[in-house]
C-alpha cells in the first residue's frame, strides 16, 4: 500500500506522516526533505526558487521507491506540496490499484491545535525562516490554496479533527480498498458506546465496525447475520475483510433510536414491554439450522483464553465482583464459573442483550445491532444482561441520571416468569471476563 499525501504548504503533511510512522510503522519520504538535501549538497543547477524543476528532478527517484515498495508488498507514504500528476503514465496498470492519493485541506481548528509543531516544521523546511515571516495568519491564508487537477486523480479530504488518530482514520489508512470505495466521500460520526473495544464509524445508511483480529473472529458473525435475514430485523452484512491486525465489517444501518435514549428512560412503562417483546422475538425463532452455537463450555473456553492472556479489564467490573467480598482476580472468578455451571436452556440468544443494542422507532422494535455473538445460547444469559442493563441505566451507573422510582425487577412481571437469581448472577459474572 502506497499513500500519497499532498496539499498546500505548511499545513501539517509531514507531521501527519510522522504520526503514521509512529503509530503504524509505515516509513515515509518527504519531497521537501529531498529538495532540502539537494540544496544543502551544493547542487548549483537547482536553487530553492526552482520549485517545480526541483520536484521534477526528484520525482523519478521517488517513483522508483514507490515501484520497489509495491513489488515487495511494503507500505510507503510519500508527502509533498507539489507532486506531478502525469506520473501515472509511467506506471503499469497493475501498480495503480495499490496507490492512494489524498489531498489535505487543514481547517483552522486543525492548524490551531498543532500550530507550534507546524510553525517549527515550516521554519526547518524554509531553512531558518524568520519568525516574523511565519505567522498563524500566513499559514491559514496559505491553506486555502488547492492543487490544480487533483480532483481528477485523488480524494480530497477535509481534515477537521485536531486529534492525529482521528485524522489518520479520516484518510482511511487501514480500511481495505473494497470497503473504502463503498464509503468514500460519505460523512460519518464515531461511537464508543459499549465495551467491545471496537471502532465504529456510523454513516447515514451503513455502519463500519473495525475490530482487533487477535481478540475477535467476525466470520461466524457474518454467517449468522446472513442467516438472520428475514427472521428478525438485524443489520445486513454488506462487506467483510480481514488482515493480520484488523477485521472490517460493513453493515446496513438499523433505523430508530437506542432503547436507552432519554425518552424511553423517562417512560419506563413504554420501554419495559418493548424489551420483553424483543426477548420473545429471539426465543420464538427455530434454532434447528442456526449456524452458530455458543455452549457454556465454548464460552468458558473463550474466557480461559482471555484470562490466560491477560485480556480481562477489571476496571469496569461490578463493584462486588473483585476485592474483599468478591473474587481475588479473574483467574479465581473463572475457576468458580467452571465449577458451578448451571443447567443449559438453549434458545436463540442475542449474546449481548443490553439497551444500546435494541433500537426502537415509532413505538416498535425496529431492530438489533451488535449481533456478532448471536447464536444458540442459554436463555438466561440475555435475561441477565438485560436486567443488568436496565438496572444501571436507571440507577445512574450509565449516563449519570438516577431514576429512583424504577425497579428493574418489573421485567420479570412483564415476561411472566420467576427470576432465577442464581443463573442471573452466573451470567453476569461470566460477562465480567469479556
Strand residues, percent: 15-25%
From the helix content, strand content and strand pairing, which structural class follows? alpha/beta
Low-confidence stretches: 44-49, 125-162
Number of contiguous helices: 17
Distance between the termini: 34 Å
* Percent in helix: 25-40%
Topology of helices and strands:
Blueprint: E1 2-7, H1 13-24, E2 28-30, H2 31-40, H3 51-71, E3 76-80, H4 93-96, E4 99-106, H5 108-113, H6 115-125, H7 136-142, E5 155-159, H8 164-170, H9 177-183, E6 189-191, E7 199-202, E8 206-212, H10 219-228, E9 237-242, E10 246-252, E11 257-258, H11 262-266, H12 268-283, H13 296-308, H14 330-339, E12 346-349, E13 358-361, E14 364-368, E15 375-378, H15 379-394, H16 410-415, H17 421-431
Parallel strand pairs: 1-3, 1-4, 2-3, 4-5
Antiparallel strand pairs: 6-7, 7-8, 8-10, 9-10, 11-13, 12-15, 13-14
Helix pairs in contact: 13-14, 15-17
Descriptive tags:
five-stranded antiparallel β-sheet; 434 residues; 17 helices; alpha/beta; single chain; 17% strand
Description:
- The chain is of the alpha/beta class and 434 residues long.
- The chain is 40% helix and 17% strand.
- The protein is elongated.
- 30% of the residues are buried.
What is the structure about, briefly put?
This protein is an alpha/beta fold. The protein is built from 17 helices and 15 strands. Helix 13 (296-308) packs antiparallel against helix 14 (330-339).
